[in-house]
Amino acid sequence: MLRRGLPSRLARGARLLSTTRVAAAGAAVRAAVILQRDPIVLQQSKGFEAAADGYFGWLEYMSAEQFPREFFFKKGSSAEKKWLELEDARAAEWYFDPASKPQDKAAPGGSADAEPGKEAESGGERLIAVQPRETAADAAGDVRSLERRLDRTLYLVVKDEAGQWAFPHGEVQGEELLHEAARRALKEACGGQMSVWTVGRGPVGHCKAGGRTTFFVKGHILAGQARPVQPLASDFKWIAREEMESVLPAEYWAAVKSVLSTV
Amino acid sequence: MVVVGGRAAAAAGISARVRPGLLRAAKAAAGAKSSSSGSSGGAGTRRGANQTTADPRYEQMKQILFYQEPRTLPAASEEDVERHLAILRAEKIFKMTASARRRAEREARFAAMEAAYEALAEADPRLYEAACKKESSATFPRQMRVPTETPPTKIWDYLGAQAQQ
């Protein structure tokens, strides 16, 4: 993957030059964490993709073998009822010429017979409540919430001392390594109440601004929440990629946009 | 991809025909099964020497496998075929553009990482060398969840009593 040969030679060359150069360069290195909350729900197909799925699904349904209803379902059971409801919905679909649609499509074997209310009560079924994909945080537009926009990747940005929105960052101090400096900076700026997994030991991106370079380390938040610590971070937001451009400074955005996910 | 003409032709071809080899094998299996179950099961399953009562489910399964007529696609007019081909073409274009976009994003992400490593080598060789070392036991954390169709009842773990800041 990475060409180890040339960069290693460059590094050796740099070390040979002088120790003072290394010390000066080390002072200008910043470590930051691009902390992401991964999607919690899958993407739903929209537009053309959903319509095409419907069409090809109908073709497969129409050409599939007959479902042996008597073999699989007990007569009058709730499972059979549910299946018949699905069949009724299917019967309404027709993707070919409307004139060729068969008019006498009888409902397969009487859908609404055999005591509709009885089976649900007597079976003692526990109904599983399916949670909605849109949450209260979506409705309220709460940008600090981790439960907003469940189908997208959210990134943590904090308002630093200069009043700029950026990823949590800090200087590399002493003999620590890049990923260690990044984790320490994240903890100092956003509190230790987050369970974070930083990926690897190296950067995924960088930004050169005014003599100092910031290197970004990728991290995933697994649990917890950010709690900004006052001098370093006054506020925080969890926002998706498309919401970032209006929030970050222009050259910062240009440096990180290819690193951020569109899913 | 479903091709209308081919599918319809194939379906029509096999609709009224029973596959004899398979049927013979099924009969033999059913016969063997019923005789063995009769001898080991006891008096309940056997009526007489020539009337072994096999498990009724075997008959049901044979009916389902061999005697059911599969559905065929409805007859497609010329316009229907044109529509089908247009949809196929559109889907192909959609998939090609989506795949090309994803590839471009992947390559840009990798290029950004490469550029970052080169910049790090220039800025601080000690950090660069440390970044190039491979992690000894790199695994995904157990708490990393796979996305689902709908969210769980407890959407996020806030790690303690100070929940939902």
TrEMBL record, chain A:
<dbReference type="InterPro" id="IPR015797">
    <property type="entry name" value="NUDIX_hydrolase-like_dom_sf"/>
</dbReference>
<keyword id="KW-0689">Ribosomal protein</keyword>
<dbReference type="InterPro" id="IPR040008">
    <property type="entry name" value="Ribosomal_mL46"/>
</dbReference>
<keyword id="KW-0809">Transit peptide</keyword>
<dbReference type="InterPro" id="IPR033650">
    <property type="entry name" value="Ribosomal_mL46_NUDIX"/>
</dbReference>
<protein>
    <recommendedName>
        <fullName>Large ribosomal subunit protein mL46</fullName>
    </recommendedName>
</protein>
<dbReference type="GO" id="GO:0003735">
    <property type="term" value="F:structural constituent of ribosome"/>
</dbReference>
<dbReference type="InterPro" id="IPR021757">
    <property type="entry name" value="Ribosomal_mL46_N"/>
</dbReference>
<dbReference type="Pfam" id="PF11788">
    <property type="entry name" value="MRP-L46"/>
</dbReference>
<keyword id="KW-0496">Mitochondrion</keyword>
<dbReference type="GO" id="GO:0005762">
    <property type="term" value="C:mitochondrial large ribosomal subunit"/>
</dbReference>
<comment type="similarity">
    <text>Belongs to the mitochondrion-specific ribosomal protein mL46 family.</text>
</comment>
<feature type="compositionally biased region" description="Basic and acidic residues">
    <location>
        <begin position="115"/>
        <end position="124"/>
    </location>
</feature>
<feature type="domain" description="Large ribosomal subunit protein mL46 N-terminal">
    <location>
        <begin position="28"/>
        <end position="138"/>
    </location>
</feature>
<keyword id="KW-0687">Ribonucleoprotein</keyword>
<feature type="region of interest" description="Disordered">
    <location>
        <begin position="99"/>
        <end position="128"/>
    </location>
</feature>
From TrEMBL, chain B:
<keyword id="KW-0809">Transit peptide</keyword>
<dbReference type="GO" id="GO:0003735">
    <property type="term" value="F:structural constituent of ribosome"/>
</dbReference>
<dbReference type="GO" id="GO:0032543">
    <property type="term" value="P:mitochondrial translation"/>
</dbReference>
<comment type="similarity">
    <text>Belongs to the mitochondrion-specific ribosomal protein mL40 family.</text>
</comment>
<keyword id="KW-0687">Ribonucleoprotein</keyword>
<dbReference type="InterPro" id="IPR019192">
    <property type="entry name" value="Ribosomal_mL40"/>
</dbReference>
<dbReference type="InterPro" id="IPR042831">
    <property type="entry name" value="Ribosomal_mL40_fung"/>
</dbReference>
<feature type="compositionally biased region" description="Low complexity">
    <location>
        <begin position="29"/>
        <end position="38"/>
    </location>
</feature>
<dbReference type="GO" id="GO:0005840">
    <property type="term" value="C:ribosome"/>
</dbReference>
<protein>
    <recommendedName>
        <fullName>Large ribosomal subunit protein mL40</fullName>
    </recommendedName>
</protein>
<keyword id="KW-0496">Mitochondrion</keyword>
<feature type="region of interest" description="Disordered">
    <location>
        <begin position="29"/>
        <end position="55"/>
    </location>
</feature>
<keyword id="KW-0689">Ribosomal protein</keyword>
<dbReference type="GO" id="GO:1990904">
    <property type="term" value="C:ribonucleoprotein complex"/>
</dbReference>
<dbReference type="Pfam" id="PF09812">
    <property type="entry name" value="MRP-L28"/>
</dbReference>
<dbReference type="GO" id="GO:0005739">
    <property type="term" value="C:mitochondrion"/>
</dbReference>
